[in-house]
Amino acid sequence: MNDVWQSDWSMMAPEWIVLAAAITLLVMDLALPSSRSRRPLAWGAAAAAALAMIATAAMIPAESASILHDTFRLDAFAKAFKLVVLAGGALALLLVAEWAPKEGSPHRGEFAYMMLFALLGAMMMASSGDLLTLFVSLELLSVSSYILAGLRKTAPASNEAALKYVINGGIATAIMLFGMSYVFGLTGTTNLGGIARRLQETNEPYMLALAFLLLLIGVSFKLATVPFHMWAPDVYEGAPVPATAFFAVVSKTAGFVLLLRLLVTIFAAAPAEGRDPSSLLLSMQPVITVLAGLTMIIGSVVALRQRSLKRLLAYSSIAHAGYLLAGFAAMSWAMIDSLWMYLLVYTLMNIGTFAIIAHIVNETGSDDLDGLTGLYRHRPLLAAALGLFLLSLAGIPGTAGFIAKLHIFIGLVVTEPGHYVLAAVMAITTVISYVYYFNLIVQLFFRPTFTAPLGRLPAGLSTAVIFCALGTLAIGWAPGLAYDMLARFGHFGDFLP
Amino acid sequence: MMFLSLLVFSPLLGIVLLMFVRKTDERMIQWLGTAATVPPLILALFAFVQSGRGFRLERLDEARDWVRLTDLPFLTDAAYVIRYELGIDGLSLVFIVLTAVLATLAALASMLVKTEKKGYFLWLLALEIGMLGVFSAANFVWFFLFLEVTLVAMFLLVGKWGGLERERAAYSYLLYNGLGSALLLVVIAVLLARTGTANFALLHEMLHNPAAEGQLIAPLTAEGRRWLLGGLLLAFAVKLPAVPFHRWLIRVHVEAPPPVVMLHAGVLLKIGAYGMIRFGIGLFPDEFRSFAGVLALFGVINVLYGALLALRQRELKRVLAYSSVSHMGVVLIGLGALNEAGIQGAVLQSIAHGLISSLSFLLVGVLAHRMGTTDINRLGGLTKAMPLFSGYLLTAALALLGLPGLAGFVGEFTSFLGLFQTKPALAAVGALGLIFAAVYSLKAVLDITFGRPRDRREAVVGSREPQASAASLGEPQGGVVDLQGKEAVPAFILVALIVAVGVYPQLLAAPLTAVVKTMMNGLGG
C-alpha cells in the first residue's frame, strides 16, 4: 500500500486541475444565489481545461512512466491524445459559456462542470493501463454525457436524446463489459500489458476472437460507426449545441483512444487461428475494413438528404469516423500518427463549425440550413470562416483537412498489398461529401437572404472560431507544425507496454 | 531565387489590395483586378524571352522545407520529406505564358461582369494563382494543392456569376473534377507512400533507375505501375475531358460567365493534356506505350463525337463547347501517336486551342451582352451593325476549322502527322472530324453574320434599334454597338497571337524541343 502513496502524483497534474475545477464549480453552483448568472462558471471551466492543456504540454519532454501499479500510464500516446481531448473540451466549454437558447431556459451551472467530469473521463481513458481504469473512465465520460444530452429540460427532443443515449450507451457498455470478462477469464489479470503477455501463451483463438468482437461492438457504439451509428443523429439533434459539439469531438476522440488502448494493446500480439495472420488484430483486419467502408458510405450518402444542420453534422461525423476507422484498418506504421493528426484537425474544424451553428441556433432558435442563407451579405467574415471549416471538412488542399486525409491515404497504400478498395471508397465518399459541404457554401455565398441579419458573434464563440480558423489554416499551409509534434511524441514508439 | 514563387503568387498582391477597395467602386475594382494580372504576365514573358536566349530554366528551381511525415528509424533521411518545390521546363513555360496572357485578357474582358465585381475578381485572381501553380509545381503534393485551388475558384465563379442554370453547372464541374482529383490523389498517395517522395525528378529516378529501386519503401510491381498510369490517365481524361466524361464541360461552357470560360477552355482543359504528358509519359514511359492505342482511339472518338454534335447545335455556346470536345480529341490523338511529332502536336494543339477558344468566348461575351442571346436561330445579319465584330468572329471560325496560317492548323496538322506515321487507319477516320469542323464553325458563324434569323418572331437582327422582344430577355444594353476600343484590344491581341503561332510555330516549338526529345528517349523511340 505504501508505494501507492509514494507514487509520483504530479504525473496526474492535468487530471487534478480538471477534477479540482469541476468540484469547485459544483460547490459554487450550489452556494451561489439562484439569481446570479452561471455564465462565469463556464468561463472558469474553459480556463481550467486550458490550464490542464498547458500542464500536459509541459510534460511532453518527460520520459514515459506509469504509476499506481501500471493502471495509470503517462506515455507519448497519453500526452498526445490528452492534448487533443483538452483542446476540444476547452473550445466546447467556450460554446457552453455563450449558450443562450431561444426557449429561454436559464443558464445552468451543471452544463460547465458535467462537461468537465466528462472531460476528466476522456483524459483518464487516454492514460489507462488497466481494464478497470479504462472502464471506470469510460463510464465517467458516458454518464456525464447522458446528462449533457438532456440539459434542455423543457425540450422533448432533448429528453428523447438523453433517453436514447442512456439506453444505447448502456447496452454498449454491457456488451463491452461482457467482452472484458472473457479477456479476464482467459488471462486472470486486468492489466493491459499483463493481458497482452499472457495471451501469447494461451491457445484459445476462438474465445479470443469472440472477446475481440464483443469489445469491438462496444467501441463501435462509442464511435458511432456502422452498424451502431443510429443513435448519433437523434442525440446530436436533440442535445444542446455545445453538448453536440462535445459529443462529436471529444467523445469521438475518446472512442478512438479506447479503440487503440483496448484492442491494439491487448490483441496486437495475441495468437490467431489460421495460416497467415500473425496476430488476432491482423486477422480481424477484413472485418474492420468492411465496417470502415460501410461507415464512410452510409455516413456520406445519408448526409445528402439532411436539412437540420445538427443532423447533417451528425452524419458527417459518422463519415469522418469511417475515414478514421479506415486509418485504423490500414494497420500500418502510420496508424496512430494518422489517427492523432486526423482527430486534432477534426476537432478544430468541427468546433469551428459548431460555434457558428451555436450562434445561429441562439439567434434564430432553429438549426435548419436556411439559417445560413445569405450569411455572406451581412457577416462576410463569419461566412468566410464557416466556408473555411467546410472546405476543411471536405478535405480541400490549403486546409488542415487535406493534410489529415492525405496521411490516412498514405497509410492505406503503404503496405503491400495496399488497401486500394478502401482508398477508392474513401476517395469516392469524399467526393460525395463535396455535395453537402458545398451545398452549405452555396447557401452561404450564392443565395439571397430572407432572414433578419444575425447579431454580432459573442466573445466566447468568436474566440473559438478564430482559434479554430487559425489552426485549420496553419496546419493546412504549414503542416510541419503538427508533424513536429508527432516527431516529439516519437511517433508513439512506446505505445505497446 | 524566388522568381517562380513571385510569378505564381504575384496575383496575391492584387487580392490583398482589392480587399481594401469599396464594393461599389467598380471602376477601381476593374482597374485593379486587371492590373493585378500584369506582374505574372511580365515575369512569364521575361522568362520566355530569356529561355529563348539560352537561359537554363533549371536555374529557377526552388525548394524549401515544408513537412516531414515521419522519421521512423528504418527510413532514410530523405524519405517522406515533402518540400515546397517549384521548377519549370520548356513545357511548363509554354503553358505558364498561355495562362498569364489569357488571365490578363480575361480580366480585361471582365468589364462586362456587373454584379459583385469585387468577389468576382478575388476569385479570378485566385484561379490564376492556382493555374500558374499547377504548371510551376515540381512536386505532386503542391501540384494537387494548386489544382484544387482552381477547383474551388471555378466552382464559385461558375456558381455565383454564371447563367440561369449556374448552380447545376457548378455542381457538375465540382463532381466530375472532384472525382478526377480524388483518383489523382489516390495515385499520388501510392507513389508517395511507396517511394517516400513526391518530387517529380526524384520519382522519375526512383521508378527508372534500377539502383534506386532498392530504396523503394514498398515494392511497386509492373502491374501496379500499369494501374497507377491507368489511374493517372483516367483522372486527367476527366479534366481534358475525354468523351464519356465531357458533360460537365458543356454545362460550364454554356453557363459560366464568358471571361471565365476564356480561362476554363483556354487553360483549365489543358491541365488534362499537361498532366498526361508530364506524368503519363514523364513517369511511366514504358507503361504508356501500352496505353497509346486506347488514347488514340479515344482521341478519334472525341474528335468525331464532338464535331458531329457541334453540327447539330443551334446555340453558339454549345457549338463552341462541342468543338472544344472535338479539339481536345486532337490532343489525345497526338499523345496516342507516341512519336515526336505527336507529342509536339498535342502541346501545340493545346496552346492553339487555348488561344482560339479564348477569342471565341471573348466574342461570345460581347455578343451575349449586346444581343441578350447567343441562339443562332435568333441572330442574323450582324455584319451590317457590327462589322468589326463579325470580322473577328469569322477569324475565330477560320482558326477553329484549322485554316493554314492560323494557330489551329499547326496543332492539328502536327498531331495527325504523328498519328499517320504510327496508326494510319485510325488517323484517316479521325481526319474526317476536321471536315466537320469546317462545316460547323462556318455554318454557325455565317448564320450569325450574314444569314437571316430562322426564328423570325423572336429575332434579334442586327438593326440599330433594339428589338422589343429582346428587351424581355436579358436586356441588351443600349442599341447594337460594334466592338469598342476596350473590347477590341484583347480580341486584337488574341488574333495577333493566333496568326503569329500559325505563321511561325517555331516560336512555341523551340522551347518544347528539348523536353520532347527527353520524353522520346524515355519512350525508347
From TrEMBL, chain A:
Chief location = membrane
Q: What class of enzyme is it?
A: translocase
Q: What topology does the record note for this protein and the membrane?
A: Multi-pass membrane protein
Q: Domain NADH:quinone oxidoreductase/Mrp antiporter transmembrane spans what residues?
A: 128-432
Q: Which reaction does it catalyse?
A: a quinone + NADH + 5 H(+)(in) = a quinol + NAD(+) + 4 H(+)(out)
A Pfam entry, by short name: Proton_antipo_M
This protein's UniProt keywords:
Cell membrane, Membrane, NAD, Quinone, Translocase, Transmembrane, Transmembrane helix, Transport
Q: Which GO terms describe its molecular function?
A: NADH dehydrogenase (quinone) (non-electrogenic) activity; NADH dehydrogenase (ubiquinone) activity; quinone binding
Q: Which GO terms describe its cellular component?
A: plasma membrane
Q: What is its EC number?
A: 7.1.1.-
Tell me which domain of life the UniProt entry assigns to the organism this sequence originates from. Answer: Bacteria
Subcellular localization(s) per the UniProt record? Cell membrane; Membrane
Indicate the transmembrane segments per the record.
12-32, 41-60, 80-99, 111-128, 134-151, 163-185, 205-224, 245-270, 282-305, 312-333, 339-361, 381-414, 420-446, 458-478
Query: Which BP terms in the Gene Ontology apply to this protein?
Result: ATP synthesis coupled electron transport
Complex formation:
NDH-1 is composed of 14 different subunits. Subunits NuoA, H, J, K, L, M, N constitute the membrane sector of the complex.
Q: Give the HAMAP family listed for this entry.
A: NDH1_NuoN_1
NCBIfam families of this UniProt entry? NDH_I_N, PRK05777.2-4
Q: What does this protein do?
A: NDH-1 shuttles electrons from NADH, via FMN and iron-sulfur (Fe-S) centers, to quinones in the respiratory chain. The immediate electron acceptor for the enzyme in this species is believed to be a menaquinone. Couples the redox reaction to proton translocation (for every two electrons transferred, four hydrogen ions are translocated across the cytoplasmic membrane), and thus conserves the redox energy in a proton gradient.
Family affiliation: Belongs to the complex I subunit 2 family.
Name the record gives this protein: NADH-quinone oxidoreductase subunit N
Q: Which organism is it from?
A: Geobacillus thermocatenulatus
What's the name of its gene? nuoN
TrEMBL record, chain B:
Every copy of the NADH:quinone oxidoreductase/Mrp antiporter transmembrane domain together lies at 137-429
Q: Which UniProt keywords apply?
A: Membrane, Transmembrane, Transmembrane helix
Q: Does the keyword DNA-binding apply?
A: no
Q: Report the InterPro entries cross-referenced here.
A: NADH_Q_OxRdtase_chainM/4, NADH_UbQ_OxRdtase, ND/Mrp_TM
Kindly list the biological process annotations in GO that this record carries: ATP synthesis coupled electron transport; electron transport coupled proton transport
Task: Give the top-rank taxon of the lineage listed in the UniProt record for this protein.
Answer: Bacteria
The cellular location(s) given in this protein's UniProt record come to: Cell membrane; Membrane
> Topology in the membrane?
Multi-pass membrane protein
Q: Which GO terms describe its molecular function?
A: NADH dehydrogenase (ubiquinone) activity; NADH dehydrogenase activity; ubiquinone binding
One GO cellular component term: plasma membrane
NCBIfam families the UniProt entry points to: NDH_I_M
Q: Which family does it belong to?
A: Belongs to the complex I subunit 4 family.
This protein is called what? NADH-quinone oxidoreductase subunit M
User: Species lineage, top-down?
Assistant: Bacteria, Bacillati, Bacillota, Bacilli, Bacillales
